[in-house]
Amino acid sequence: MACFTAPATAAIITTIFRKKIPKEYHIGWFNTLIWGGTAGLILEHVAHGEIVPYPPFLTAMATPAETAVMLSEILSIGVPMLAACLVTWAIMVCANTYFTQSSKTGAKHTA
Predict the structure, then answer these.
(1) Where are the alpha helices (DSSP H) in the chain?
(2) What is the 3-state secondary structure (H, E, C) of 10-37?
(3) CA distance 14 to 21
(4) Do 45 and 39 meet the contact criterion of CB atoms below 8 Å apart?
(5) Which residues of the chain fall short of a pLDDT of 50?
(6) Would the CA dihedral through 44, 49, 50, 53 be positive or negative?
(7) % of the chain surpassing 90 pLDDT
(8) What is the pLDDT of residue 109?
(9) What is the mean pLDDT of the chain?
(10) Which of 6, 10, 32 lies closest to 89 in space, CA to CA?
(11) Which of 26, 59, 72, 95 has its CA 20 to 30 A from that of 111?
């Protein structure tokens, strides 16, 4: 219904403040990850008729009961999806830092 709103909100915030985030955090990686996921989710919701080009735009907002279900979905699906993206990004940044630092010292990597 609207699970994409949690990652979309994070994507908007990090895009707005990306210049204030230190380069070593590679916020561009996170933005690419989160915007791509958000775009895919929006397309999927449009294809299933859950997003329409007329008010209320999200069909789940037609009645208060459906709105409550939508908010529950955002919390139970959207927030964990955002958390998964954050963890993936954190692993990418940590791996990059590790391999960049060890290549400067000449250490050998075993994979």
Answers:
(1) 5-16, 27-47, 64-73, 79-105
(2) HHHHHHHCHHHCCHHHCHHHHHHHHHHH
(3) 9
(4) no
(5) none
(6) positive
(7) 67
(8) 60
(9) 91
(10) 32
(11) 26
* Each residue's pLDDT tens digit, 75-91: 999 999 999 999 999 99
Distance of CA 80 to the CA centre of its chain: 10
Task: Decide: 11 and 29 in contact? Cβ < 8 Å.
Answer: no
Q: Domain range holding 94?
A: 5-104
Flag whether the pTM goes above 0.85: no
- Is 42 within the bounds of a domain? yes
DSSP assigned state of 58? B
Angle at 58 between CA 57 and CA 64, to 5 degrees: 120
| Chain centroid to CA 19 | 18
Torsion angle in degrees (nearest 10) through CA of 58, 61, 66, 68:
110
Report the domain count for the chain: 1
**Three-state secondary-structure class, residue 48:** coil
Task: Give the Cα separation of 104 and 60 in Å (integer).
Answer: 53
